[in-house]
User: Fold these one by one.
Assistant:
Number 1:
Amino acid sequence: MVFSSCETKPYYDKTYSFKGKTWNQRLKPEFVVPVEQTNQYFDFIIAIRTTTDYKFNNLWIYLNTTTPNHQTGRDPFQIRVANDDGTWIGSKTGTIVENQLLFKRRKFSEKGNYKFTIEQAITEKTVGEILDIGLRVIPVK
């Protein structure tokens, strides 16, 4: 799913930049979100920026979640980057393409620190032309 940026100020917004535009499977960016309230809904956005030299039409990731009481989950997701005809799906500026995966209207179940770890899950050990990946948590009005 591709969506444009929201207008509301993010509750959490961090980005991990890849050295040499390369994401090795051993590298798993972590994002720790401190949660103070459990009655608020949030939209979660995973944003990825690639160059126009990215050679795939998608990127598979695993999203690992650890709650404050150490419960864990691991879910696979596909981020579509280009159509079958090679046209870019996300927003393109020069040689940079940004795509987003949106999880709408979620609540945190308890207070404390939530850890989100993102793994690249394609069949190759390294994938090139990836600039960065980020997590935004935005309160729903």
Note: Residues 12-139 form a domain with the Jelly Rolls fold (CATH 2.60.120).
Number 2:
Amino acid sequence: MTRLSTRSDWLAAHPPAAERLTQTLSEVARRAREGEDFHLAVREFLDEFALRVDAESRAAAIDERPPPTGEPRCDAYLGALAEHLAVTHELQRPPWSVEGDRFLPRFWFVSEVPGFRAISIAQAPAAFRRRNVFVPERSLHRV
């Protein structure tokens, strides 16, 4: 019997049942619109997305068009995240992710800490950069 050293190892060896995976980008948008913290909702989505083991399940989490959040930066972020996850996991990019309201006219540095700007410029994945959303790449990974 192999000893599992991390929570991630254990979860990979014991994935949850598919019907328990319910987080979607559309749900993130709904939560943000209702006043929940957008970044917390995104982190919870990414936590669950990491547990999805097949392309069909991953696509189901990003395919549905999220409703507008009321905050253009969040809408652009969701478009970037959908495109980034599609590219990373070799999925079809959701058509909604490239709609005009998923792009910002000005730069947005997700972190307000000045020291993170250079890191964000250097590390932001292409899907984020092309929308003027700058986020460190490692903030998109959950372990």
Note: The two ends are 23 Å apart (CA to CA).
Number 3:
Amino acid sequence: MMYTQLYQYLLQHKQLPVPGIGTFLLERKSAAIDFFNKKINPPSYAVALDPGSHLPGQHFFKWLATALGISDREAIFRFNDFAFDMKKQIGEGFVINWNGIGTLNKGLGGDVKLSPVATDLVFEKSIIAEKVIREKAEHMVRVGEEEKTSVEMTEMLSQKEEKKSQWWIYALAVALLSLMFLGWYFSEQGVDISSAANRQQLVPQEAATGYQILP
């Protein structure tokens, strides 16, 4: 039989028409994000059976002939015999287990029923999905009517913060100068209380007479 070769054709071309049975399809499921494990799972495929079928094209028989190592003419006859035998067995109530695709049996309406394999087909690997923080990434920032880069804004803000953080330096310098002056002054004048007062002597003056002695 040619189950293995036809399964390989389905994987490569995503569909396989079998006259009298239907068209086997690989239905694509989108990639999914796994937040818990921090990764992105690749797209997967599930096998389905479309009741509608058509005769395969010439390219199919050329592919099958190459896979089986026979002529194109012989490939056509062998494939038609394969499809006829499959339809006959299902019609008689047999269950066909097709490795990689699933089980085929007769449905209630006399059509062919497919029970696909439980595991979806995956042809790619998962990738790690971690958030990347670019601390030095440059982007545009609108400030009023102007646009500045994030680097320029960072420099401006850092300069403002630096100016704000230096006010205490000036206050400390003034305080130190004041202490130095006071130290020099007291070293020159002494620490007596009188040294800090006005040292000029006050001379009392005679008060003018405000009265006369009458004779």
Note: The CA atoms of residues 42 and 124 lie 6 Å apart.
Number 4:
Amino acid sequence: MSASNAFETLLLQLLFENANAANIGDATGLRGSTTAGSFYIGLHTADPGEAGSQTTSEATYTGYARVAVARSTAGFTVTGNSVANDALVTFGACSAGSSTVTHFSIGTDASGAGNLLLSGALTGSLAVSAGITPSFAIGALTCTAD
């Protein structure tokens, strides 16, 4: 079974933009959260895969922490079956250690295993070492729900 493009878009908008999903359930449809909260962007040294968690191959340099992004149109943009960051995403500066990051993820928890929702490859690997502050422009972190 496969989800339609319209359903994929509707579901992603509900989850990432906190938008209402009309015509599902009762007359008001599926409603966005009263308090939307955030999802957390993480960096990974390899693809965490569909069976992975937020800690699978996660970056480990000193100064690294996941970045909270609001579940709103200020935080994410949904286009078709793709989700992208709608604001600059800047991670903590590396003060020691190193990681070569190749992937990013979107998950539910600020730390720990958490629920990995989506992940994607960076456009190129990024070597993070002392003095490097990973930062990603609007739209640079895009992943697709297939």
Note: The mean pLDDT is 93.
